[in-house]
Design a protein that fits this description.
The protein has 154 residues and is an alpha/beta fold. Helices cover 32% and strands 18% of the residues. It is globular. The two termini are 14 Å apart.
Length: 154
Amino acid sequence: MSKFKIVLVAPEIPGNTGSIGRTCVALDLELILIKPLAFDISEKAVRRAGLDYWKHVKLTVYENWEEFMEKENPEKENLFLFSRFATKSLFDAVIKPNCYLVFGSETKGLPENIKNNFIDQLVTMPMYSEHIRSLNLSNCATAAAYEALRQIGF
């Protein structure tokens, strides 16, 4: 049984995706990327970036959100979509095995149509300073992964 999966929708910064991939390897999680990707994830490209662990990432790539939904067929309550505009904190969510932690792109977040269709599944990471608009994607994904792991049991 899968612990949970991390999903990146249209990631833009290869370093963030690489760092999230490293977290996935560390926690034995699957990483799902949903196109469009703003960078090349070929073996040569990631090797050149020094990501020697990338070959160990359990990676699935989907062409779009619709293909992801069709092939993965997640139950709605197993989706946790991250948005800085969500009103529910991740720490108030009940996370169970086989869930999906879903993150949008670094500059745009999740597309509006996805957020609108899963409004009850939106969660946020708390931020208490008015000087910060958002958290770094890889930091947020890693913090969320460890909270999910804590909730479902190490």
